[in-house]
Structures are given as structure tokens and as C-alpha cells.
Write a structure and sequence with these properties.
about 70% helix; single chain; mainly alpha; 3 helices
Length: about 100
């Protein structure tokens, strides 16, 4: 199946969209849509919980989503700097060993 074959609600005219949501199966379709939306929100919520739980200073604490994102950005910056520092140290050790003839 190509992405071109996928039909979305935006592909319908206003009248067709109204029929879709207000026709004989509208209640069932709306319920199904609500279930999908709830699953989507729960999936996002679970993602924030997982992200929070891998950030050392907020791990397991109750914090807002914006705080989770801010701390994640800070922590990623810290980790990038740490990687860079260790890479430099590795190069220095490697150069020192090379100069010592090992």
C-alpha cells in the first residue's frame, strides 16, 4: 500500500465528513475515535514517564512535562560534553602511548 492510497478525513468534503460522523454508525465511529485518541494520549504520557525515569535528577519525581523536556535537553547537553571530554582524553592517552613507543 502506498501512502497515496491512504484516505484521511481531510479527503472528504464537509458534507461527506458530516455523513461520516453523523450517519447511522456515527456513535460507534465516534467511540472508536475516542478510544484511539485515549490510547494516543496514554502512549505520549508513557513516553514522558520513561523519559523522566532516565534523567538522574528528576528520576521518579513528580514534575511537569515541560520540566521533563527542559531537564532532558540539559542532560543531553551534559552527556554530549562528557563524550567530547572522554574522546579528548582517549586521544591524549593514545598519543602518549604512541610517543612512549608502546
Amino acid at each position: 500500500m502506498d501512502y497515496d492510497d491512504i484516505v484521511t478525513v481531510d479527503d472528504f468534503s464537509d458534507g461527506e465528513r458530516d455523513d461520516f460522523y453523523e450517519g447511522p454508525n456515527a456513535g460507534r465511529k465516534r467511540t472508536y475515535h475516542n478510544i484511539l485518541e485515549r490510547k494516543r494520549r496514554n502512549h505520549i504520557k508513557d513516553g514522558y514517564v520513561k523519559l523522566r525515569d532516565v534523567i538522574p535528577d528528576i528520576e521518579g519525581k513528580k514534575v511537569s512535562r515541560i520540566q521533563i523536556l527542559k531537564r532532558a535537553v540539559e542532560h543531553i547537553g551534559f552527556l554530549k560534553a562528557e563524550v567530547k571530554k572522554r574522546e579528548m582524553h582517549f586521544r591524549e592517552v593514545k598519543l602518549r602511548l604512541k610517543n612512549e613507543g608502546c
